[in-house]
Design brief:
The complex is a heterodimer.
Chain A (H helix, E strand, L loop, with lengths): L1 H7 L2 H11 L3 H14 L6 E2 L1 H5 L2 H4 L4 H8 L7 E2 H9 L22 H12 L6 E2 L1 H12 L5 H15 L7 E2 H8 L2
Antiparallel strand pairs in A: 1-2, 3-4
Chain B lengths: L1 H35 L6 H27 L20 H9 L15 H14 L30 H41 L4 H21 L3 E6 L10 E4 L5 H7 L5 E5 L3 H13 L3 E3 L1 H5 L1 H13 L6 E3 L10 E2 L13 E8 L15 H9 L4 E7 L11 H16 L2 E2 L13 H15 L19
Parallel strand pairs in B: 1-8, 2-5, 2-7, 3-4, 3-5, 6-9
Antiparallel strand pairs in B: 7-8
Classes of the chains: A mainly alpha, B alpha/beta.
């Protein structure tokens, strides 16, 4: 129920999340109601099934990857802080961020953090390189059964060839950045 | 001492009896009898007008309180969702993502940024999606002084709280007993009346009396909910031998529609109280009640309905093709079964005014009794009913396309969003084929084929169920 949502989230928590993620007060309360409406078990955490219940996400070819990005290593539940931390990457970059503190760490939604997030969606084993296999995995998820293995393999090879600059037959983060934006 | 006490008790008892008599005569005189004959004393409309004024005042007061409290802007209502979305098709948006490189979509091939399109769409749907919000109550722009819709509203002023308190007292202590009594009287009269009419042999008299009994009882029940119903375009009212289809928000839809005409109901036969009501209704005029086992057999259902429609003197069937309750902000996919029966379809659009009470039945959260209690403790039920001109299936149109055509007409008239998603997603998982459609579309882009229809998959209306 609506009133329950606003009372369960304390002001101090909202302030902490605000500092950490940069979302505004009203954005945080809105996202909290969204979180509670997805939380069918009403235990303050979301499981993978809760995400799968969103039809638009369930039909997304890369839906499982996105869901995985919310869950920390080896865990099956994500709480509201973790939820917000992941979403914070996608907050639009503002020109005049209020906490322009040079000693503070880079905000979660900075350009390079956004790109790092996207890079990590390819690079599952976190070795800072997108290998041919990892690229093939994502490709296969996106095209389904409509393209043969050989064709897909050649697409992957071509992509790596074009992007790879240091000849290690995989794409590093810097090579990735160069490829996706000028 | 005991004499005095007994005397006192007798006095109290006689006062109670007098009060009860007054109560009943007020009820019968002022509410039931006018209701039975479709007249109105105008009390409800005055009540609604007062309510509207109070709610408007409350809205202004809340906004003012909000402004005084903080320098942040008042959160604006969000008609199209929480976030700003790009509206383009898959091709357009991927082209945008690729523009950093000089590779265009038409040449095909894969780009690393293509996956971003899916990630963006996926994250947008996590923050706010079009479907799951239809299965919970509509969010109000401003609080309507009911605790149950209290979403984010904090204490603003003493006057507002006092009015809210008064509202609680009036709703629970005055209106609620009144409504419960009316509902009980209405239902009892329905059972008794239809059983009595069932004994009559004569066809025409029986039908006329049966219609009268049904109408009276539904009108009493409507008063039992303080329902104010506005019917539009009455010239399009469903005729005998036709099929009436409407969007479904709550079980009360039946009461709303039956206040203005007689329909043959279609549904599952229940046990208990519902079963008693169903069995007595069938005695006076033919309704179509199915056993649970019969419901699974599509052919049996269709042939029984077809037989009912074919007898031109039977009352129009009332069907809700969505199959489940939706929250009255959109119309979801119509199941094509009702549109295969043949006959003329009379579409009806029902729109509730959410300010006076939330009519949506969230069957996952509340059971029927709980729901009815909530209905009876709302301010009122204000509803608009539009009768649309009759439609029939065109040449070369299959049942699914016809269903979509009717659905769009209803959505357009009622000011609701027309959605192609299936209402059964409330409980069931979405079909794999939608994912496969997206994969297919992307594959054709990668292989560089031109001339494909670039519409998003689930808005195509030629999809088989």
């Amino acid at each position: 129920m609506g009133s329950r949502a606003s009372t369960l989230l304390r002001e101090e928590e909202i302030e902490e999340i605000k500092k950490e993620t940069g979302f505004s007060h009203s954005q945080i309360t809105r996202l909290y109601s969204r979180f509670t409406s997805l939380d069918k078990g009403e235990n303050g955490t979301l499981s993978r099934e809760d995400f799968q219940r969103i039809p638009e996400l369930a039909i997304n070819p890369l839906g499982d990857r996105i869901i995985n990005a919310f869950f920390p290593e080896g865990e099956d539940q994500v709480n509201f802080r973790g939820f917000m931390r992941t979403l914070a990457h996608f907050r639009p970059i503002e020109d005049n961020e209020k906490n322009k503190d040079p000693t503070a760490s880079e905000p979660l939604n900075s350009r390079s953090n956004k790109l790092l997030f996207a890079f990590r969606l390819y690079d599952l084993d976190r070795d800072d390189k997108i290998s041919r296999d990892e690229l093939l995995q994502v490709l296969r998820m996106m095209v389904g059964v409509n393209i043969s293995d050989e064709q897909l393999g050649s697409i992957a090879d071509r992509t790596i060839q074009e992007a790879d600059q240091n000849g290690d037959n995989s794409i590093s983060f810097n090579e990735f950045i160069k490829k996706v934006c000028l | 001492m005991t004499d005095l006490c007994e005397g006192g008790m007798d006095d109290l008892w006689s006062i109670a009896v007098v009060l009860l008599q007054v109560w009943f005569s007020v009820m019968i005189g002022f509410i039931m009898i006018p209701a039975m004959f479709g007249l109105s004393l105008g009390v409800t409309s005055v009540y609604i007008q007062i309510l509207v004024k109070i709610l408007e005042w409350a809205t202004l007061r809340i906004e003012r309180g909000h402004r005084e409290r903080s320098t942040l802007p008042v959160p604006a209502p969000l008609p199209f969702g929480l976030i700003q979305r790009e509206g383009g098709s898959m091709e357009q948006e991927m082209g945008e993502l690729r523009r950093y490189r000089t590779q265009s979509i038409s040449r095909g091939e894969f780009a690393l940024s293509d996956s971003f399109y899916f990630y963006i769409k996926g994250l947008e749907s996590i923050v706010d999606d079009q479907v799951t919000q239809r299965f919970s109550s509509e969010e109000l722009v401003s609080w309507n002084l009911l605790t149950r819709t209290n979403h984010n509203f904090h204490y603003i002023s003493l006057r507002l709280t006092v009015i809210w308190g008064l509202g609680v007292i009036i709703r629970y202590c005055v209106l609620f007993p009144l409504r419960i009594t009316l509902a009980i009287i209405g239902l009892t009269w329905l059972v008794i009346g239809t059983t009595l009419v069932g004994f009559l042999p004569n066809k025409r008299l029986k039908n006329w009396l049966s219609e009268l009994v049904h109408l009276m009882c539904y009108r009493i029940c409507a008063r039992g909910l303080s329902a104010t119903i506005q019917y539009h375009n009455k010239e399009n009212k469903p005729q005998k031998g036709g099929i009436c289809v409407a969007n479904h928000t709550s079980p009360i839809d039946i009461v709303i529609l039956a206040n203005d005409g007689c329909y043959a109901m279609v549904g599952q036969s229940h046990g208990g109280l519902m079963g008693v009501i169903q069995r007595s209704m069938v005695r006076s005029c033919p309704h179509v009640w199915f056993e649970r086992s019969e419901m699974r057999d599509r052919n049996a259902v269709t042939s029984r309905l077809r037989a009912h429609v074919a007898a031109k003197t039977n009352l129009p069937i009332l069907i809700f093709p969505e199959g489940t309750c939706i929250n009255n902000t959109s119309v979801m996919m119509f199941k094509k079964g009702s549109f295969e029966i043949g006959g003329t379809i009379y579409p009806v659009a029902i729109k509730y005014d959410p300010r006076f009470g939330d009519a949506f039945w969230n069957s996952a959260k509340y059971n029927m009794v709980n729901y009815l209690l909530r209905m009876m403790t709302s301010w009122a039920i204000v509803v608009n009913v539009w009768y649309l001109p009759p439609m029939t299936r065109r040449e070369g149109e299959d049942a699914a396309q016809f269903a979509n055509r009717v659905k769009s007409a209803i959505a357009h008239q009622g000011g609701l969003l027309d959605m192609a998603w299936d209402g059964s997603l409330k409980r069931a998982k979405v079909k794999e084929e939608f994912k496969e459609q997206q994969q297919k579309m992307y594959s054709s882009m990668v292989m560089g084929k031109k001339g494909r229809n670039s519409q998003e998959p689930h808005t195509e209306s030629t999809r088989r169920q």
